[in-house]
Structures are given as structure tokens and as C-alpha cells.
Amino acid sequence: MKIILTHEVSGLGTAGDVVDVKDGYARNYLVPRGFAIRWTKGGEKDVEQIRRGRKIREIATIEQANEVKGQLEGVKVKLAVRAGEAGRLFGSVTPADIASAVKAAGGPDIDKRRVEIGSPIKTLGAHQISVRLHAEVTAKVGVEVVAA
């Protein structure tokens, strides 16, 4: 099935790309979650609009990405969450939580879709997460999760 990606999908492409995927993957995962729309002749007009929006948001050069990486790695991020007595969280820390905590700590504004958490953060303490800024640049950010 031919689809138009509306968001970046790891291993598949970036927003505005027209790709061929298996029918079930498109129908059951990509389209319901809003990562893609079905390709149509009229949808080709949407591709240009999606690409223009992507160019505005994306970090264009490696130099810009390295500059943002330096800013991110210099920020001390502390995230206050609700936790039980044993240090286990009620729920887990999401990429959106981390993106807003970085902004609140005085760091650059980052897109939550670029935050990559290896395994779900469900305990208090220090954790390392990565932020994919560019195809070749990834920043490591230390996040300290504390009880609220």
C-alpha cells in the first residue's frame, strides 16, 4: 500500500515521504496513530505542505545540530513525578515529559518525537536518554527523576 508519512518513522522515512508498506502495517499501525495518510492523487498536494512544515521545524545542518547538542548536554534536567514509597513511579516518564522538562530547565525547545528512551523510566534516580537531532548527531541527556 502506498502511503504519505506525516511524521518521522524510524527505519521508514521522514514526513512528506511517499513509501510502500504492507497493507496491515499501514492500516493497523501507521494510519490510526496519525503517522501516515493514504496516498491519493489529491494527496500529492499535501506532500508539499508537509515538507514545508518539516523544513521549518528541522535542524538543517550538522553545525546547528552540534550547537543544540552542546546546549542539551550542558543542561541539568530534574523531573518531579509522583512515586510510591519504594521509589516506583505511578506510570512512567514519557518523551513529552522529558521535552517539557528540558525546556523548563533552560534548554532548547526539542520535539518530543526526537526523544528516544531505551527502556521505560519507572523508577526514581538518574537516567540517560538520547535525543536524535540530526541523522548523524545524537545528544545524550542526563535526567534525574525525583519524587514530587
TrEMBL record:
Matching entries from PANTHER family are given as:
50S RIBOSOMAL PROTEIN L9
The keyword Magnesium is annotated on this UniProt entry: no
Q: What's the name of the protein?
A: Large ribosomal subunit protein bL9
- TM segments? none
- Extract the Pfam families matched here: Ribosomal_L9_C, Ribosomal_L9_N
Q: Which SUPFAM superfamilies match?
A: L9 N-domain-like, Ribosomal protein L9 C-domain
**Domain Ribosomal protein L9 residue range list:** 13-40
Q: Which UniProt keywords apply?
A: Ribonucleoprotein, Ribosomal protein, RNA-binding, rRNA-binding
The organism sits in which domain of life? Bacteria
Give the protein's function: Binds to the 23S rRNA.
Which protein family is named in the record? Belongs to the bacterial ribosomal protein bL9 family.
GO CC annotations? Answer: ribosome
Q: Does the keyword Ribosomal protein apply?
A: yes
User: Which Gene3D superfamilies does this chain map to?
Assistant: Ribosomal protein L9, C-terminal domain (3.10.430.100), Ribosomal protein L9, N-terminal domain (3.40.5.10)
